[in-house]
Amino acid sequence: MNRLADATSPYLLQHADNPVDWWPWCDEAFAEARRRDVPVLISVGYAACHWCHVMAHESFEHEQVGALVNDDFVAIKVDREERPDVDAVYMTATQAMTGQGGWPMTVFATPDGTPFFCGTYFPRPNFVRLLESVAAAWRDQRDAVIQQGAAVVEAIGGAQAVGGPTAPLDAALLDAAADQLAREYDDTNGGFGDAPKFPPHMNLLFLLRHHQRTGSPRSLEIVRHTCEAMARGGIYDQLAGGFARYSVDGHWTVPHFEKMLYDNALLLRTYTQLWRLTGDPVAARVAAETAAFLIDDLGTPEGGLASALDADTEGVEGLTYSWTPAQLVEALGEEDGRFAADLFAVTAQGTFEHGTSVLRLARDVDDVAPEVAARWQRVRARLREVRDTRPQPARDDKVVASWNGLAVTALVEHSALTGDPVTAAAAVRIGEVLAERHVVDGRLRRVSRAGVVGEPAGVLEDHGCVAEAFCALHQLTGEGRWLESAGRLLDVALERFAAPGGGFYDTADDAERLVTRPADPTDNATPSGRSSIVAALVTYSALTGETRYREAAEAALSTVAPIVGRHARFTGYAAAVGEALLSGPYEIAVVTDDPTGEPLVAAAHRHAPPGAVIVAGPSGRPGVPLLADRPLVDGRPTAYACRGFVCERPVTAVDDLVGQLARR
Asked: Residue 479 — pLDDT band, cuts 50, 70, 90?
């Protein structure tokens, strides 16, 4: 019998009616495999995954496949977004066995969870043959199968090892990382590498901070060029805002249409910081539109943010988003239809499938005459109205702690610069969901859905991203409760996740035991657990003055430093935190009875060095350490700027504060 009907994961619920007798990940499933003496089929994917849907339709909905699986295996379906720890272990095994990875991930394991054969997507004929071959091998060559599994576990145990070489993450290593990114940069199209091309948000955040420290024009130009290329490309939704997961080509034209919360949160930070440093109007517009996309399209009734919008609509990728010239004319009329086709590069030949095109921005709209800008906005709004009448992609509405944490930090940074109360209120609402729903008996849970918290325990990245978000909310609101909540999460991380030599495991010491205990130090689609916890430790230490958290951050970062200079593309968040440590980070306190609209507060946010923390409010406000014992000077709002716990003189003039922040 299929046991997924009561799952909280939308991905598992998509498979609840399969003829496969799916189990969720649980001890009972492995006990059943031991009882029946059969291997385990572990299928890992996520709700917005296109090829997961394809394999489901081809194989898991097929009666013959269901019968084969049910006769010879215990089948377990895993949502990688709910159980990143399970995904990490078996993805490492898949990469070790095949040299590559991806989703859907298909793993055959012994009843104790030891993987012995791994792969990704299999067309139905291949999958049927594979099922038959694995079942026969389990019956007839059991010793060889078990030996193969032991070898895989040994290999992945080494891949996830902690306690390796360490080094200080100093200026020389960060400069080397920036130089490596510059060498690997695509000067024609922006970004790194060729197809498929992913938004390199964490590398861009690092390069912006590197530019701030060094003044490197090359680092800034890489960010500016890449951000403009993505914003004009089909990877960006020209009608509703928000970025797709990646481009299937090397020039950002045709996206893989799923929209992930984590990408858009990190890209919101990137465009916000680019705008802050340069005043770039494209960056300003895209940041505002991306913030609106997060709130409007991913917001849940409970106040959190949903995980993703699907790549497919009714089983067809891009159905919602692609256009022909004739469709533009039908929606807009002849004259505006031709205008839109030219503006959005929609041609008779098309850039996508069946003569359709994905909208790109072929003309400038950010520095044009008011009448042209007004026409663009009118056309854009009408096309959005028409598109909204089409079938829409499904939404994975589970709330993932770490991704919501990333979004809170991004929304706070944006609202701090714009003063937008809508963005600020959304950040607080999300924070409330995380604090009230996801923290259970002092421990963080990974997911919730429809207001109901799930069972999976929070992993290291959840603790890091949520703690960093709580630190951001402390700076936004001036409320001590957020700082207290961040400290409790960090204390759990230090107690339960710490590894020998200063590193961290991705799972707690009292979490479910897997075949290995994951400890991946590299940043991939999201910041690694190690990078995210280091970021939170650095920020919390700066806000509280408690040096033991900084010392823990420096020790953890030293375990990543040997990778930074050699593999810069996979250590972007770690390198960004390294830049914050090199800059101080600065602690800026503005003492004022009314922070709203205070010029000193605005100047602090506009000119803050990398990783700076900024609080504003009345002197001695409870729960805000940076406002303690800091009076007004001559009765006027006063700024106190400190670096590494060494403070400049208090100032009351904006120019004086800007001058202090420029001396680094």
From this structure: very high
